[in-house]
Amino acid sequence: MDELGWLSTIVIITLFLGLKKLNAIIKNPLLKALTNPVLMTIMLLALLLISCSLPYSQLANDSQLLTSLLEPAIVALALPLYQQFIHIRNNLILIFISCSIGIINATVMATLLSAAFDAPPQLAASVAALSVTTPITLLVTESLGGIPSLAATMVIFIGILGALFALMILRLVGVHNHQAQGVAIGTTFHAIGTAAVLTEPQKISAFASVAMALSALLTALIVPLLYPFLSQALL
Amino acid sequence: MDVKTSLPIKLLPYLISSTLIVGCLAVAKLIMNWLQGSFPAPLLGMLILLTLLLTKTVKEHHIAPSAKPLLNFMPLFFIPAGVGFIEHLELIKQQWQFLTATLILVPLTSLLLIAFVIGLFKGRAEHG
C-alpha cells in the first residue's frame, strides 16, 4: 500500500460519512430511503472508477484496511442479536417460524426464477441469500459461489424498495397487525426497511428489529444448507 | 486522577472486548479450517459469541466497547466489496430482466407470506 492507497481509503471514509450526515438531515422518509448513504457511496465510487477507467482490483487492494474489519464486525453482530433475543421470549416460536419461512421462500423463489430465466449458475448463487442484511449476504453468497458484490447491491436495492412500499402494500392487502407488519418488514427488508418504520407505531419497529437480527442468524444457518440442494433439484 | 495511570485503565475495556471478538473469530477460523467446510467463519464466530452471551459466560458490557464502534461503522467495511459489481456489468446487462424480476418477486412474496403466517396465528387485529 502506497500513499495513493491511503488516499482511496480516506476518500471512501469521507464520502460515506459526508453522505450519512446529509441523509440524517433529510426528514421526508421517501427521500431519506432514496438517498441511502451506503448505496450512494457505492454508486459514486463505481462511477468514479468507470469514468476514470481505473481497475476495481486497485480499489479492492487499497481498501484492505477497511475490508479487514468486516469479519470482526460480523462477529460483533452477536451483541444486537443477543439484545433483541431478550425481547422476544413470549413470541419466540412464532417469530422464529415466520422468519424461517420468509428466508426459505426467498431462496426457493430466487432459485425458481433462476431456472425460469435460465440464469447462469454464478448468477443463481448470487441471488440465493437476499433476505438478509448486507454483510451476511456477502459472506453467504461467497460461500455459495456467487458474486458477493452483486448480491450486496441487490440487497440494498431491496431494502430501499421495502422502505418505500412495504407498509403500503401490507395495508393494501389488509394486514394491520403490528407484529405481522414488523416481522415481515424486518425479515425481508433488513436494516433499511426497519429504519423506515421507526416513525411508525413502536411495536412495528421493535418487531422489525427482532426479525432483522433473527434473519441474520437464520440465513447463516439455513441458506448454505438449502441452496446446494435446491440448485441440484431445479437448475 | 493522574493521566499516566488512568490511560491503561481506560483502554482496558477496549482491549478485553476486542480480544473477545478476535478470539471468537480465531476459534471459528480454526474450526472451519479443521472441518474443511464452506460455512463462513465470521458467521460461526458470531454464533460462538452469541452462545457465550446467552449462557452469561460473557456479559454485554464486556464486548460493547469494541462492538459498538465496529457496528456503527460496519457499512464502511463492506462498501469496497459493494463496488465490485462493476466487474460484472456485462453479465448484469445481459440478465437485467432476471435481476429485475428477482428484485421485485423475492421480497414481495416473502413479505406477504410472513405477514400471512403471523396473521393466521394472531388474527388481523390492529394490536397483535
UniProtKB/TrEMBL annotation, chain B:
Keyword presence, Transmembrane helix: yes
Q: Which PROSITE patterns match?
A: PROKAR_LIPOPROTEIN
UniProt KW keywords: Cell membrane, Membrane, Transmembrane, Transmembrane helix
Top-rank lineage group of the source organism: Bacteria
Q: How does the protein's chain sit in the membrane according to the entry? A: Multi-pass membrane protein
Q: What is the protein named?
A: CidA/LrgA family protein
Species per Swiss-Prot/TrEMBL record? Pseudoalteromonas haloplanktis
Q: Which residue ranges does UniProt annotate as crossing the membrane?
A: 12-32, 38-58, 70-86, 98-121
Give its localization: Cell membrane
Q: What Pfam families would the database entry show?
A: LrgA
InterPro entries assigned to the protein according to its UniProt record, in alphabetical order:
LrgA/CidA
